[in-house]
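Worked Example 4.2. Consider the chain below.
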Amino acid sequence: PADAHAVALLARAARLAPGEAIPRDLLLATLRLPEEDRSARREAVRGLNRLLALGLLERLEAGALRIHRLLSAFARQAAPDDGALAAVEAAVIDAAYAANASGAPAQMAPLLPHLRFLAEAARARNDEWAATLFNEYGIYLQMVGDYAAARPLYERALAIRDQALGPAHPDTAASLNNLAALLADRGSTPRRVRCSNARWRSMSRRWDWRTPTPPRA
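Applying the procedure from the previous section yields the following structure tokens:
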């Protein structure tokens, strides 16, 4: 089991931002092990320690880890794992959601290189995972006042969710609200967000743009 976990962890580390510090807990979280399965978690730690002993991962200060850029590229080719990217995105999204929910932008600092890397890599995609990455990154950028960078991320998340889930879905409504909240922060909230179809125009007429709620997933 430890060897299998080591292979899985290497594949997942290779899908995070190359050359950047990786929080240890974040990398272990990509295995998606049940909290109550202590045996599996011990084996995962053993697998991680094997990677460190072999020099495949580097231990940094404060317990963070790093994979060399060249090794990262090699591992993506030599250790393919169809579920690695999805597991990494899920772990980063969970951690980013918690950091954003804290209301303290500093909580995002260890995650930011990886959230940015994954969001940029997902730009051509039209799935819900991509939309959620854009949304969480947009929330962070809005919190730190980078409204110009946050807006296209919110708009992209909204477009994906509108297409995939429909305008009446709660996640789509949340994206619409996030965009409204951003425009309100910029002092440029329109009476309704311009929409490309009649259903959105109908929804936006029913929405109270004067009091948008804080951004949410």
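Confidence is low (pLDDT under 50) at residues 191-214. The CA atoms of residues 141 and 150 lie 5 Å apart. Compare this with Example 4.1 before moving on.
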